[in-house]
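Long-time lurker. I teach an intro course on protein structure, and each term I like to show students one example going from raw sequence to a predicted 3D structure in token notation. This year I'd like something fresh instead of my usual example. Would anyone be willing to generate the tokens for the chain below so I can use it in lecture? Attribution to the forum is fine with me.
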Amino acid sequence: MHDAELDLSAALVRDLVRQQHPRLLAEPITRVASHGTVNAMFRLGDDLVCRLPLVVLDEGAAIEAVDAEIEAARIFSAVDVATPELVVRGEPSAAYPMPWTVWRWIDGDVASAVDVGDDLEFAEALGQFVIQVRDLPTDGRTFGGDNRGGRLVDLGVWIQRCLHESVGMIDTDTLAAMWQHWCGLGRDEAADTWTHNDLMPGNLLVRGSDLAGVIDVGQARVADPVVDLQPAWNLFRGNARRAFRSTLQVDDEEWERGRAWSFVQAIGCLWYYRETNPEMSRTAYTTLTALLGDG
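-- Reply from a regular --
Happy to contribute to a lecture. Here you go:
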């Protein structure tokens, strides 16, 4: 999916765990089927999962990314829904040049494999999760960075490239007009809050029809709270979309800005992962089609 992506295997994970945390070693070690784009996951026995970044970062950036994920997991542990729980942290080695982590396994099916798009109770439960995340203490943090959750206009160059690359895949003319409208949106004085920032169907776990867990807090940050509205378009339809919005009590201005942030993620994934991660590209297409129909 990326330049210089690492080739990871169960044998590598076995060696890393044996060398650094032998008490955790359990069999079997199997790669978890996933449509994730920046980490590989290997299940370690029944209860644990190893998470290894796929692309090498410089040492400072790699440490910062793992530290941020571990801190977010600690903070998110206060919500009622199961979220990632750290077991141990692994260090770079001659065999693998990045820090890595081991987490508790959370049982459930990913929402991309179970059709909950019309499930009102699931929509309301996910809305309650978002509310609890927004209520987590920020301790004075505000948005910092160049990704989702800051100012829409700062992403103009990237969005123009994505629209160009997506010609022929989706109605880019209408989406370009929508983007121009979104760039003119203001933002009220509402404070930044904690956000999961990556509520994709593959990060939502379903057990029966219940929300069993929300995984992957690697993108979690304090940001514009409306970035967590994205399941309205990447997952829900019709009445479930309305139930999700009603649970969150979203006004028209917030809803429109949430549409904009959902577009930002989807338009970047549509063309970029067309060949290397078709499921991610299809989810982006579903999202963009919903945004066009909801406009």
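Some talking points for your students: The chain has nine helices and ten strands. The radius of gyration is 19 Å.
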